[in-house]
Structures are given as C-alpha cells and as structure tokens.
Amino acid sequence: MYFDYDNSNGNSIKNTLLNLPDAERHERELIRKDYIFYKGKCIVPIDKVGEDKALLGQNWEINDNCDYKPTQDIRNKIKPLLRKQARWMFGVEPTIKLKSDDKEDKDQCEELRKFIEDVLDDNSFWPTTKKAFLEATIKKRVLLRVEANPNSPLVIKYESIENFYYREKNRKLLYVVFFEEDEENVYREADTEKIYYIHTYYYKFTEKKERQAWYKKETYFNAELQKDLTIEQDTGFINIPCWLIKNSGELNDSFGESDVEELMDTQTQYNKTISDVRDALRFQMFGAESIIDGNMDDVSKLTVAPNAVHAIRTRDELAESGKQASMQRLEYNMGNSAAIEAYLDRADADMNVTMDMPQLKDLNNIPSAKAMGYLYNDLIARCDDKWNDWTPAFIGLFEFIKEVGSICYPGLYNKAWNQLKYSTLLEHNYPLPSDTEEKKTTAMNEVDHGVRSHQSYIKDFSESENAEDEWNEILQEKTALTAAENEQFNTE
After folding, report:
1. Residue 195, domain member (yes or no)
2. pLDDT, mean of residues 66-87
3. Is 83 contained in some domain?
4. Closest Cα partner for 162 from 35, 52, 253?
5. Does pTM surpass 0.85?
6. What is the DSSP string of 412-462?
7. What pLDDT score does 114 carry?
C-alpha cells in the first residue's frame, strides 16, 4: 500500500501533472492523515513533526510541564479490525456463476466462466483485490483498470487514489488520468533528469454521435511536456477500461468514506488512557508527597521523577526551636483499577461494534455453526453492503474481458461466446466456521428426494472442474458394478 508521507519533489510533480482542483487536493490531505493514523505510531521523532501534524499518526503532542517524559503507549486496534474486514470480504475468493438465459447455452457459459477465471488467476486478481479493498476502506477510493494489447495477455491493475484523477457523471467515468514514474528514475539523481508519464482515457464522438474510447500517453522530463513523444489513439473499445470503486458513502457522495474516521476518537482515548495507567503503575503517581516544616525554596524545586532523591531543609525560623522538616508519602491504592479496566474494555468493544464485529468473548458456548452465523450476521450484512460498491466493477471487468478476448487471446477465445445471453452472479464466500458437513447432508437428502440433481451436488461439493464428466464416471462405475453383480448371480 504505497503512500507519499512527505511533500517530496516527486509528490509535488505528481499533483502538478494530474492538475488536481483545490477540493481534490484538500481531500487527499485528509486521506493521507487517515492512512498514517491507520499505520499506528509516529513515523518520525515527535519533536521533528513540525507543522505537518498528520505525521503524528496515533501519537500526540505533549504540552504538560513535567520533569519526566510521559508514556505514549500505542495499542493499534484499527489495523487488525480493518484487516479482518478485508479477510472477510476477499479472504476466500467469490464463486463466479454465469446463469444462461437459454438452457442450450449452459455448457458454453461454463466454458466462458472458466476462461474468465483463468484470466483472473493469471493476474492474481483476488489476492490483489483483497489488498485494494483494504486500501479503499482507508483512502475511500481505488481505480480498477486493464491494459489490453493485441495478442498479449490482459494486465489487470489497481491504482491508489494518489496516482489518478477522474471526472464522472451519474457514476459513469468520462475521463481518467493516471500518473506513472519511469522505472529508470531510481538511477537518476537530479530531479531535472527524471521522466514521468501521464496516461489519459477519455471519450470522443463520431459524426454519427457514436462514443469512442480514446487513449493518450504524454511524456514529461521533470514537469516539461515532450510534445513530440505524445501518443494519442482510438482504443477501439466501447467503454473506458477503468472502473472507479468508492467505499460506501451517502447518495451523491463525491469521495466515499473512510472506515478509519469513525474509529479515530475511540482509538486516541484508548491509547491515552492506557498510557496514563502505565505511568501511574511505573512511577507510583497515584501517591502524594506531604512535606511538613520544609523550606519553601526546596519544596518548589522538588523533582517529579521515578526514584528521585529529595533534600529538604527545615525552615529557618523553625530550626531554631529544634523542629525538623519531615516528608511523608500518602499512598493511594489501585482501588479504581476496575473502573480503568471497564473503560478500556468498553472502548475496545465500541470499536468492534462500530465495525459490526463480535468480540472473542461472544464466541464462547456457541452450539453450532448455524448459531455462529447468526453471531456474525451484522458483519455479513456490512460486507454485503460493501459488495454493492464492488460488484458493478467486477461485472464491467468480466464484460471487458469478453469484449477483447478474441483480440488478446485469439487461440483461446471462442467468438461464439459473444452471442451468449446470461446473468452474472457472484456468490460471497465468507470464512465462517465450517458447516460443510451439515450442508452436504442437506444436499444429499435433496438428491435422494429428487429436488436436486447429482451434477449440481458434484459442482458444489466436489473439486472436479467438470461436473458432467464426474457424473459420467460415476455412472460407468455403477454400470460396471451392476454388470459384475449380475455375472456373479448368473454363475451361481
């Protein structure tokens, strides 16, 4: 998950070449702050943060006048929560189903599904998607795009929000520009020698008002455009091969929303409370020093620090009468430790509730996998809601793979697939504790009662790629066994 922490020259040039409006620049500063907070601890010495407060992450500035350095104990709860949510979404890849409108096309739809899955597997699509989803929950937006060239395999990529800009209308991308740095820049020390590329997808209209997707590549030496190296061409595609994905958000929300924002206040209070408790235990700060008849100058110069030595003189007017200054420590027991633990537990629980996740203690005494499913119902509903943001992009990708299949995979793609009519379904496979045996038992009962086919059972619960071949093999074995039994019976 790449991100520019500083305002380096490369980052400045990127923003300049992308030509970002002010509102977009401001939004990217906010997501930068969210991302650094998600990472946890301050990435630089706190005293060197300066004006860039976002670099503090989950740490905070200390303005207390103390003779010791207060603890900043960072217990990052946000990162594991968001990672767990990403595992729930895409830890187990979804099942793609192409449901044909015509029963006669069932086999061809299955072949097309296998072709699409092979293209996705070649690009490690689902593992990469899990990482892109995690990034979207922090930075609000990601871009899914495809590079397609004749006789070459498709390249499917995700772009971080820092690397692209777009314009859209009614959730339809009309213009997409993304930034790329030349690979050889790592060997170029001077900024003036570095090379950058700006890739742009946009639409043009023909005289017949037909929309065409165009592509332009611009080359920059530092920030200077090299016009003679500019490439502009008609892609031949019906649509721009890019899909914008926003994390949730409200109706007509321009940027989406970050899951980090709702957790920030609770995480900060959790860190500060546990830091105060650690100081209290370590330095015995719950106790208080009581000084009787001590010199005022000595008392005002007392050092507040662990194991400090105190030298206190008796006040002059009292020393003459034979009195002696004394110092006592009034100990305070940890009678409020239960309240502290309750607060920390509540803060931890609140973050889980915000993310619709059950806590470990909720998982005790669960009688069955079905009951476990009820416990995770809110999290499943949350993920189903996020699937509504991602599914259109996936379906658009599958349709694009079909559109360019004959051009990029001329020896593998069957042009007859272009005539198929079907519905695309994505079955969500959440990593619930296994109730497979219960499902198998139910499915076998359905087969026995004639409400489910044998091939359907094989397809859902077998590792075989071809349910029909598997079923034919079973029939052959049954036929052979029946023949052997009949032969034995006839012999007797």
Report:
1. no
2. 91
3. no
4. 35
5. no
6. T--GGGGG--EEEEEE----PSP-HHHHHHHHHHHHHTTSS-HHHHHHHH-
7. 94
